[in-house]
Design brief:
heterodimer; A: alpha/beta; Rossmann fold; 9-stranded mixed β-sheet; 4-stranded antiparallel β-sheet; 10 helices; 15 strands; globular; B: alpha+beta; Nuclear Transport Factor 2, Chain: A; Archaeosine Trna-guanine Transglycosylase, Chain: A, domain 4; 2 domains; 5-stranded mixed β-sheet
């Protein structure tokens, strides 16, 4: 177990969210996360990859909510990221919890999809694989310095349907009804990543939960505008803070023609989004969004909401 | 990024056909674009969709080849790994040990008289490794560092 320092203010918040179960959450925050991979079926058949990895002695356990996701169970071997199979692009190293957004968005082949904050490209690669390298994906990121990693990861999986762009995500509001589906993996305070980033909660203060809120709301609004009527938008963060999750979705959904869609995946243990926080009530449909605490699936913490652009007047479907 | 003209596309497709036996048919669903010294291959539908919304993009699709010294074309590692399975000539088989040596950044010697000197696609029992320059038995390691074992 690691010796991870967690600010008292965040411990109080954990108790406010989970009551007595907060101790379990805090315990899990102290343990490292299990390494996981996503098979690269754009390059090789799934059976072939699994056979080769098994023959090489890699013990893999299926991630229940993603057919391409596997946990690497070998604890005493060298890093699988330094193996021949990784060099030959048999798989991509990706946290099991970050396999969730693409599975919920579930893009079809031939769709036109936007990944609004794409770098370094884990979820873009997952989308491209699910679309079997058909249609088109705009993988956008505002940070120029993050594009080389995004580009390299697309080359690695062999995706030819990805177009990389560098725009402020808010600019997509000018592209009304352009995309069949949009993923907003929003910038956030990343409190759910404490098992990988031990320092993230050490000096945590309540105002940090608000620091990204304006941009989060803007990006989600922009995503909705850029989605075709009937299309889906997935909003995700690696934060457990209601201010960055339910509060954002609630504020944006109240001003847009969207419905909140249940975001459950088979095999994934999750909690419904909360409907009240700090004396603010959210729409009841917020329960259709999903909170994932580290102890639920032995992963990092995460939040996901799926919205459908209805094209109706300004009303949220309950 | 700019679309290749028909004449430029013909040059690229002909090179890949003559050097590696890649049928022009392989590229029928792809648009070819250039940016600097690289030629990119992107799904036609992806490119069309982006044209419709007038979005400026940094790159489109996969880097297929690069111009070296301004006049010589080299198939990229990424291009070889995606399209190399359709190649019918100038492909060199390497053993598991040779593959490991390549992935460790070394050049190797091979007995591959069927392959002409020049760029060759290297493949092994586990898939396509990449592209190297062959001169006699010598195969120069041209794998990008990011594709090597570190």
């Amino acid at each position: 177990m690691a010796d991870i320092q967690i600010a008292d203010a965040w411990k109080r918040r954990a108790r406010a969210l989970l009551g007595n179960e907060a101790d379990t959450l805090l315990h899990y925050c102290q343990t490292p996360v299990q390494k996981s991979i996503r098979l690269n079926t754009l390059r090789y058949g799934k059976d072939h990859i699994l056979e080769q990895l098994a023959a090489a002695g890699w013990e893999l356990h299926s991630v229940p909510w993603c057919p391409l996701g596997y946990w690497v169970m070998n604890r005493t071997r060298e890093d699988i990221g330094r193996s021949v199979w990784h060099a030959l692009d048999y798989f991509y190293i990706q946290d099991a919890v970050s396999l969730i957004p693409a599975e919920i968005l579930a893009p079809k082949t031939q769709m036109c999809v936007l990944d609004m904050a794409a770098a370094p490209g884990s979820k873009t690669g997952h989308l491209a694989t699910m679309m079997q390298d058909t249609g088109g994906i705009v993988a956008n990121d505002v940070a120029l310095g993050r594009l080389p990693a995004l580009r390299a990861n697309m080359d690695k999986i062999g995706a030819t349907n990805v177009l990389v762009s560098q725009h402020d995500g808010r600019a997509f509001a000018q592209m009304r009804d352009a995309f069949d589906a949009v993923l907003v993996d929003a910038p956030c305070s990343a409190t759910g990543t404490v098992r990988k980033n031990p320092g993230v909660l050490e000096n945590w203060q309540p105002n940090q939960a608000q620091s990204h809120r304006k941009i989060q709301e803007s990006l989600l609004s922009s995503a909705i505008t850029a989605t075709k009527p009937g299309g889906f938008i997935v909003y995700a963060t690696c934060s457990l803070e209601p201010e960055e999750n339910e509060a954002v979705v609630d504020a944006v959904a109240r001003n847009n023609t969207v419905a909140l869609i249940p975001s459950h995946l088979s095999g994934l243990q999750s909690r419904p989004g909360i409907t009240e926080w700090n004396n603010c009530a959210f729409v009841n449909a917020m329960e259709r969004t999903v909170r994932i605490y580290p102890q639920d699936n032995n992963t990092q913490g995460f939040y996901v909401a799926c919205l459908q652009k209805t094209g109706d007047s300004y009303a949220i479907s309950e | 990024m700019q679309y290749l003209s028909n004449a430029e596309r013909e040059i690229v497709v002909t090179y890949l056909s003559e050097r590696f036996g890649l049928s022009p048919h392989v590229f029928k669903d792809f648009v070819l674009l250039s940016s600097g010294r690289k030629v990119w291959a992107a799904r036609q539908l992806a490119a069309l969709a982006i044209e419709e919304i007038s979005l400026t993009v940094e790159t489109a699709g996969l880097p297929l080849l690069r111009w070296r010294s301004g006049r010589e074309m080299k198939l990229t590692t990424a291009g070889a790994r995606v399209f190399g399975c359709h190649a019918t000539r100038n492909c060199v088989y390497v053993s598991h040990r040779e593959m490991l040596s390549l992935l460790q950044g070394n050049s190797i010697e091979v007995d591959a008289q069927a392959a002409a000197d020049g760029y060759v696609i290297l493949y092994g029992d586990y898939g396509i490794i990449g592209v190297s320059h062959k001169k006699g038995p010598q195969v120069m390691n041209m794998l990008p560092r990011a594709r090597q074992l570190t």
